[in-house]
Amino acid sequence: METFKSNNNKLPSNLPQLQNLIKRDAASYSEEFERQYSVYQATCVIFEQNPTVYNGDLHQLVMFLAQVAQCYPEQLNDYPQELMTLLKRHGSVLHPEMRMAFVKALVFLRNKNLLSPTDLHMLFFQLLHFQDKNLRQFLKQHIITDIKNINSKSRNMKLNKELQNFMYDMLMSKHAVAAKTSLDVMIELYRKHVWNDAKTVNIISTACFSKVTKIMVAAIRFFIGKDDDVEEEDSDSESETEEQKNALRSAMMATKVNKKSKKMQKKLAKAKAVAKKNQNKKKTKASFDFSALHLVHDPQDLAERLYKRLSKMNERFEVKLMTMNLISRLIGVHQLYLPNFYPLVQRFLFPHQREVTKVMVFAAQAAHPQVPPDDLEPVVTTLANNFVTERYSSEVMAMGLNTIRELCTRNPYCMSEDLLQDLAQYKNHKDKGVMMAARSLITLFRDKNPNLLARKDRGAPTELDTEKKQDQFGENKAKSFIPGAEILTFKTHGEDEGIGSESDSDDDDEWIDISQNTTVTNDEDSDDESSNHKHSENMEVSKDTDEKIMSKKEALAEVLKMTAEERAAKAEDVVSSRFLTDADFARIAAAQAAKQVEKFNQSKKQRGKKRKRSDEEEKTESGELVPLKNIEMIYKKRKHDKAARMETVLAGREGREKFGARKGKLNPHASTTNRQKMRNKNFMMIKHKTAGKQKQSFRNKQIKLRNALLKQKKNY
Questions:
Q1: What domains are there in the chain, each with its CATH number?
Q2: C-beta separation of 23 from 68 below 8 A
Q3: Which of 108, 318, 485, 498 allows an S-S link to 571, with CB 3.0 to 4.6 Å?
Q4: How much is the pTM?
Q5: Are 304 and 338 in contact (CB under 8 A)?
Q6: Are strands 540-541 and 548-550 parallel, antiparallel or unpaired?
Q7: Which residues pair with 540 in a beta bridge?
Q8: One-letter-per-residue 3-state SS of 421-448
Q9: Which value, in Å, is the radius of gyration of the alpha carbons in the chain?
Q10: What is the pLDDT of residues 616-631, one digit of tens each?
């Protein structure tokens, strides 16, 4: 009993123990709480008389009341407002520790929903005006965490709208620190997927025109940065693997033969490679730009205002580059028309320009199919004249060709026939980087517009090329069919079982090469007759209809006999008359892969070798972004610096004898030579022998030269 009384006597001075007891049983300790609250009020009156001095008692009482505020809501109803009044009245002169104590107490009250977030955030943004770095960091982190917790379970749209409007007002504030903090908060909330809506993005876009450089740079970096959270692949990767295997198997079946010759094996390998490449194209995700750019309400107005500011900007060159990057991305992503931007970029396209590779990326990013060729032709000509010339190094030439390729990938209409044929001449350049860049440009126009190339550079046309038609600038044709769907008009073996079934594997040995000549020599008559007999046995006729059931090999051969117009008509009939299954799409993919490797023969009577595809061919697909590595694609081994070379030399010397001539004698008992003896003699003894090394007179030089010439004449 005495121990209990002694503990009660210590409670007024032991606030942590009283705090713990109140949280357990608030009603039993109401008197102790009233006593501490009265002490707090008296201490506040004393503190306000001299707020610049740190008061430890008030510090403890403030934190104590914040911890037990939920236990006595009636008595502490005005307590949050009292703390806010103290901060507003004396915030600028408060001791840093006292100011931080009041702020932490308000955070405790906000976490217990005893204070509205809007009122607290308004106060915190006012406190940002004070010169206290630790306080600013704490306030910024709390604002982000508080808004994130508000939207953790469900979105409070009304509260979010109020907070976003308040953030916009702070962003327009004249106080730079408050505006910068507001921008940082919105950017962080966007990256945490809390405020990732269009309103937040458009509020951030207004900061791109701030007069404060730090705010402007932070907003521009937000738009030109990449999204760190890349979408993960689907969990059902096994099904995707099976689909790829089925497509590969179908492509293999399309060109498999009975006769295992080297020619046919090469053809099968090429067909497999094409099918795999087509499958990877579907699986490869496009290089989308940072998603914030897609949420801008008026990208045309934003780009025009940024260009107007860029043309009058007096900031550092790095800031100008960032602004150019943002403008080029806006133009490329939204396919805007800003004709004045291309002459601006053109002024920086010189090999001696600092960060010229980035400027080349911006020029390529700003190109898209809707830009008139007249606006892009000067850029291509400038790149060709300033970079692709023999007076510069091979690296500069390769980067110029790579930039032209990336630009023409997005807008092939800006290339003229004469210029393209001149650039194609570098395909045989002695430097590998220039050669590969020129060949990649040729490969691009083989797909985009082969008519611009010289006849020898066009390559052999394939069956797939015959179905393509060269579009003119501004032309956009919508197809009413799926290319390759004409293969579905033929009933084949194993169609009901699906691709990759056992029936498919059983028919592998019965297929012949689709590229075999229809007119054969006498030596091959017997083989063709036997193969035709075997196929005729495999042909079946449906009981209900007269439709023939043929092998997939024969179906593909029938498709290749059609013209492009007939294939389009057949494909349109199929698409409009039935629903397509996964197995149908797999058959279409296999047929398209076979067309891609099958050489086109206009007479349709004889088929030769298919067009060869080199390993260095690049993809012609263009994403929204131009990676810098595509411009700096130099196929050359870089020179090592001195440190790297010395490291390589020393590594090569390990495990072998000491480098250099042997200085020791082969026989240790042998006598020394006269030269070795001369090294140990006194200099005065051999001084006369060094006289010949002194400066000689002109007469002595004449005599020595005459004797030397006479001796040389005698020898001849």
A1: 10-224 (1.25.10), 248-284+461-468+482-519+530-610 (no CATH), 291-459 (1.25.10)
A2: yes
A3: 485
A4: 0.66
A5: yes
A6: antiparallel
A7: 549
A8: HHHHHHHHCCCHHHHHHHHHHHHHHHHH
A9: 41
A10: 344 445 567 778 877 8
